[in-house]
C-alpha cells in the first residue's frame, strides 16, 4: 500500500516536472497522493461530529425524560472514546499535512532549481529579481497544498451525508441548510472572476517589487556612491503602492465569500431552530431531534466556509502555477536527442561563418566570422569595446547557440555535447568573475573531488592567490560573502583564475582576467602562466598589452567581424602602424 502511494506520488510529480500535459488537476491529484491517503479519513472525523449530535439527541429524548442515569454513563463513555479518537485523528491530520508540505518543498524545490540551472540563457525572460520572485511563488503552491484548507475538500461529500441525516431526523427542516449551500456556492462563483484578475495583477506587481529589491540589495555600494538611491526608492514605493493596493482589493473580495459562508452557517443553525419549533408543535420532531438537527446544520455548512477560502487561494495558486509551469516548460540546455560526451578535448576550436544576435537585439553581435584555433595554440581576441570578443567566448562555452554557422570543439558542433561535459574541458574566467558565498577553498574546488588540497595549493600559487592569502589569518578557509565581498577586485580575479586552472583543463578561456590587478602582480602571473599553459589551448580577451606575451596569434575584431588574424607581432604592427594620411 505504502509502495503504491509512493509510486503514485512519483508519477504525479514526474508529470508536473516534465511540464508535459500538466493541468491544475494534476497538482490536485498530486496533493491527494501526498496526503489524501495519509491523512487518515477526514470522513471519520466528520462521522464523530455526527455521533456527538446523535448523542445529544438520545440524551434529550431518552435519558432526560426517564432519568436513565445508567444509560447516560454508558453513552458518555462511548462519546469520550469517540472524542479521544477524534483528537488523535486531528493530530495525525495536522502532522501529515505538515509532512506533505515539507515533501512538496523538497521535491518541487529541487526540480525547479534544476530547471533553473539548465535554463537556456537565450530564453531567460525578465530580470534577476523577477526570476527570484518566481521561485518564491513555489511557496504559494506549497502553502496551498500543505494547508488544512485543502483537507476541507475531502469533507464536501460528507455534506450530503449530514444533510441526509438532518432530513431523516427533521424532515423538511433540511431545506434550511440545503438552501444555504447554493447561496454560498453562488457567492464564490460571482467573486471568482474578479479574484482571478486581481491575483494575476498582484503577482505581476509582486515580481516587480522583487526586481527593485534584488537590484537595490545587489548593488548597494554603487547605489550609495552614485546617488541612485532616490531613483530606486521612487520605483520601490510605486511598486509597493500598486502591489498593496491590489492585494487589499483581493483580500476584500475574498473575504466576501468567506464571511458569507460564516453567516450562512449561523443562518442555517438559527433557521433550523425556527422551523424545528413549528415541527415540534406539530409533534413531528422531538426536542432532542431539534438540537441534533441544529448542530448538524451548522456542521454541514462549516466546510463550505473553508471551500470559499480555498477558492480564493486557488486563484493565487493557479497564477503561480502557470508562471512556474512556463519556466518548467522551457527546453533545457543540451541537444533534444542523445547528447555527446566530451571526455578529454584535444583543444581544437573552429568557427565557421558564425553569426549571433542577442535575444531582442537588432544588431548582430557576430557577423559571419570564421577561424580555427589548433590544439595548444594561444590566441588573443582583441577589439574595441562591444566588438564581440566576450560573445565569442560565450559561444565557445555553449552558453548561447549561434544564429547562423557553426562553432565546433574537436570538430563537433558544441550544441551536440552535453553542456556539463563540454564545460568540464574548459577553465573559464568570465568578465564579471563572480565568486560564490563560502570559503576560498570551496570557490577554487567548487566541490569537484579531483581538486584536492595539493591541486588547490598549486593553482593558487600560479594565480597569485597564495601570495595574499598568506597574509590573512584563516587563509583558505576565509569565508567570502556573496559575489566575493570581503576581497579586493584584484584578489577576486586571482581566485577566479585559480578556479579556472584547477584540474588542468585542456582549453582555457580568459576574459579580462587581470583588469583589476596592478602591473607587478600581473607580471608575476604572466610568468607563471607561461609554463602552466604550455600545450593547452588559450583564448584570451584583453585590453592590457602585457598579457599579449602569453599568445602567439591575435584575432582582431570590429563590429562583430574579423578585421585581422595572424601572428601576434604582425597584427600588433598593423594595429600600431600610423594610418596613412
Ligand atoms: N546579454 C546581452 N544582451 C544583449 N546584447 C548584448 C549582451 N551582451 C553583449 N551584448 C551586445 O553585443 C555586442 C558585443 O558584446 P561583447 O560583450 O561581445 O563585446 P566585447 O567585445 O567583449 O566588449 P568589451 O571589450 O566591452 O568586453 C555589444 O554591442 C553588446 O551591446
Automatic annotation (TrEMBL):
Coiled coil ranges: none
Key words of the record: ATP-binding, Membrane, Nucleotide-binding, Transmembrane, Transmembrane helix
Subcellular location: Cell membrane
PROSITE patterns (alphabetical): ABC_TM1F (PS50929), ABC_TRANSPORTER_2 (PS50893)
Record GO terms (molecular function): ATP binding
Keyword check for ATP-binding: yes
Designated name of the protein: ATP-binding cassette domain-containing protein
Organism: Qipengyuania benthica
